[in-house]
Design brief:
Elements lengths: L1 E7 L5 H10 L3 E3 L7 H10 L4 E5 L11 H10 L3 E8 L2 H11 L12 H17 L2 E4 L5 H12 L7 E8 L10 E4 L20 H8 L2 H23 L4 E8 L5 H13 L4 E6 L4
Parallel strand pairs: 1-3, 1-4, 2-3, 4-5, 6-8, 6-9, 7-8
Length: 278
């Protein structure tokens, strides 16, 4: 059986992810208490379901503390478990709750919304540490759906190396494992002919490839990732997210992410995401 367990912060898009999986043929269970996970999987396994998605979050209450233990036991029994952890910046979550007028599950009347989100992060910390984290702060619903579909198609037995471009002016991605800053390089944004283009367009590529420092920095980042990648693999990591940032996330970071993905494509399972272009 393949089990995709979805967790994360309230308002981060867990319902969207679960709907994508349901459309993909998974048997989905929403808001399952963590204490019932193993019994539920046993029942579904005996019933012949081989693709299951379960959403578990802070609504599980005190039993949430046992979730990492339950996940480990399921893996030891041969269940193919993937954990997706969705999160977002606090100001984004506050805005989403304000727009939908939903009540936060940890709201008791004496906590502010910001305090509820902070407490929720603390309660979910152990789960997020060992999962594939997705920062949905700057993502549209359609982009999140597309990213979830990409993840479903991955080979679980191999580490996935994910290169993500972003703009520092929009904040560093919460899901980044390694972050590199390429803002010191000349910015194509200030060339009026290049300004509307992206780092995937030939004129921008030519512009950056004519800058020696861009070549040196690309080589240094590539060598660093290549040197330490075996260490992450030995640590039994399933995902490694390398975030490349420039000012706006349109030119330099996109170019670097594409070039790095191209280099590692034959060595690893690779995904490329351009947060600001999405």
């Amino acid at each position: 059986m393949q089990l995709i367990l979805i967790s994360g912060l309230s308002g981060s898009g867990k319902s969207i992810a679960l709907n994508v999986l349901e459309d993909g043929g998974y048997y989905c269970v929403d808001n399952l208490p963590a204490s019932l996970l193993q019994d539920t999987i046993d029942f579904l396994d005996e019933s012949g379901y081989d693709h299951v998605a379960v959403s578990i979050d802070v609504r599980s209450g005190k039993s949430l503390n046992q979730l990492p233990h339950h996940i480990l036991e399921l893996k030891q029994r041969g269940i193919d478990v993937r954990v997706l952890f969705l999160e977002a910046h606090t100001d984004t979550l506050v805005k989403r709750f304000s727009e939908t007028r939903r009540r936060h599950p940890l709201s008791t009347g004496d906590r502010s919304l910001t305090e509820c989100i902070k407490l929720e992060r603390e309660m979910l910390d152990d789960i997020g540490e060992s999962s594939h984290r997705i920062d949905t702060s700057e993502l549209s619903s359609n982009t999140l759906r597309a990213w979830i579909k990409d993840i479903i198609a991955l080979d679980r037995s191999r580490l996935t190396l994910l290169f993500q471009s972003f703009g520092f002016k929009h904040g560093i991605p919460l899901d980044a494992d390694l972050v590199f800053d390429v803002r010191c390089l000349p910015n194509p944004h200030y060339d009026k002919n290049l300004q509307p283009l992206t780092g995937r367009d030939a004129p921008v590529i030519a512009f950056l490839e004519n800058i020696p420092d861009a070549h040196y920095m690309l080589t240094d980042i590539r060598d660093y990732v290549e040197k330490w990648l075996p260490c992450f693999i030995r640590d039994n990591r399933n995902y490694l997210t390398v975030a490349i940032g420039c000012t706006g996330g349109q030119h330099r970071s996109v170019y670097f992410s594409e070039k790095l993905a191209e280099y590692f494509h034959d060595q690893q399972q690779v995904l490329v995401r351009h947060r600001e272009l999405s």
